[in-house]
Design goal:
- By secondary structure, the protein is mainly alpha-helical.
- The chain is globular.
- About 80% of the residues lie in helices and about 0% in strands.
- The chain contains four helices and no strands.
- α1 packs antiparallel against α2, α1 crosses α4 and α2 crosses α4.
Length: about 70
């Protein structure tokens, strides 16, 4: 189970550091967009979105484990 308050705090912190990564998380996690849909919405390539997604997920996982 995910602590939604902790996730919101971590996502706000990520947004302060890197708004694009935070937006990608919102599009994927909350809006349910596929990777290609999220990449298109952000105006980036699928490869870039994939790299950003991997980094954002690792960053959020680390933040939530604290």
């Amino acid at each position: 189970p995910v602590d939604l308050l902790a996730l919101d705090d971590a996502l706000a912190h990520l947004a302060a550091l890197d708004p694009n990564k935070a937006r990608l998380v919102e599009l994927r996690y909350f809006a349910g967009l596929s990777m290609s849909e999220a990449a298109e919405a952000l105006g980036v390539s699928l490869a870039t979105a994939g790299r950003e997604w991997a980094i954002a997920r690792m960053w959020l996982r680390r933040e939530l484990e604290r």
